[in-house]
Amino acid sequence: MRHMTGVDGLASDPDQVGEPLQNAGGTGWFAGRRKSYDREYAIDVEQLFAFLKTTQPEETAKLGITDFRDSKHIARQKFLARLQGEISRRGTIDVLRNGLKHGALSFDLFYGTPSPENKKAVERHSQNRFSMTRQLAYSREETRRTLDLCAFINGLPVMTFELKNSLTKQTVQDAVEQYKRDRDSRETLFEFGRCVVHFAVDDARIAMCTALKGNKGMAQDSWFLPFDQGWNDGAGNPPNPDGIKTDYLWKRILTPAGLT
C-alpha cells in the first residue's frame, strides 16, 4: 500500500476522492475508501462515479443520480444492477473492454493503451482510476469478514489478495487454505468472472487462482498455481538485496501500464 498509494491504508480513509498520490513515486494508484465499497454490487461506487463524471459528464448527468452514496436511490440501483448483470453475463474484462449500455445511454468503463500521437486518447487513458483498498469488508451477510487487499479499475474489482508473513509463522499455503476455507464463491466479489485473479502472497512465495470453487464441499477444487520467478532452475524466488523476495509483484507486475 505504501509503495503503490503512498499511505498504509489503515489509519483512516482518505477524506475525498482526489488525484493519485505522488509521494509513492508516481505509481498512479489511488488509496480506496472502505466505506465506498457497495457489498451488494461489489463495486467501489466512489471510484466508478468519479471516473464517469470526469470522462463522460453529459452521459453521467442523464442518469439522474444526484448522490451516488444514496444506496436507496432508484436510478443508482438500476444502473448498478445493470452493470452487475453485464459483469455476471460477460465478465469484468469484457465489460471493461467494451463498455456498458444502459437504456439509451452508453458508457466507456476503461480506456486502453493509446497511440502516443493520439493526444485525446492519451488524455483519456490517463483518467483511468487504479485503486487499492485495504481490509475490505466484502461480505453481504457476514459484515465483519474482511479481505487483506482488493484492487479496482474504475471501481470494478479485478484482483484480491491474502497476505501472510514469516513473522507470524504463516506461509503462502496458509493464504491458499484461507481462500479455500473462508472465501465463499457465492459472495458477489468471488463469483467467477468478477475478479481476474486471486493472489496468495507471503514474503517468499506467490500463488494465484482464477476461479474459486467455494467452501461447501468443493473448496479443495480451487486450483492455485505458482506465480514465482523461479530460482536456480527450480521453484521459488531469488534472494532480493533490496527487499523481500515477492516485492516484484507490486513493484513490477502491478503497474497501471502492465495491467492495461
Notes on the structure:
- The protein is α+β, with helices and mostly antiparallel strands and 260 residues long.
- Helices cover 28% and strands 18% of the residues.
- It has 9 helices and 11 strands.
- The chain has a 7-stranded mixed sheet with strand order 1-6-7-8-9-10-11. The protein has a two-stranded antiparallel ribbon with strand order 2-3. It has a two-stranded antiparallel ribbon with strand order 4-5.
- It is globular, with a radius of gyration of 19 Å.
Describe this structure in a few short sentences.
Helix content is 28%, strand content 18%.
Oligomer: single chain
Structural class: alpha+beta
**Looking across the biggest beta sheet, what order are the strands in?**
1-6-7-8-9-10-11
**Strand percent estimate:** 15-25%
State the low-pLDDT regions, or none.
20-25
Write the layout of secondary structure elements.
Blueprint: H1 2-5, E1 29-31, E2 37-38, E3 43-44, H2 45-55, H3 57-62, H4 74-90, H5 92-98, E4 100-102, E5 105-107, H6 119-126, E6 130-137, E7 146-153, E8 156-163, H7 172-182, E9 197-201, E10 206-209, E11 225-226, H8 248-253, H9 256-259
Parallel strand pairs: 1-6, 8-9
Antiparallel strand pairs: 2-3, 4-5, 6-7, 7-8, 9-10, 10-11
Helix pairs in contact: 4-5
Structure characteristics:
alpha+beta, seven-stranded mixed β-sheet, 9 helices, 11 strands, two-stranded antiparallel ribbon, 260 residues
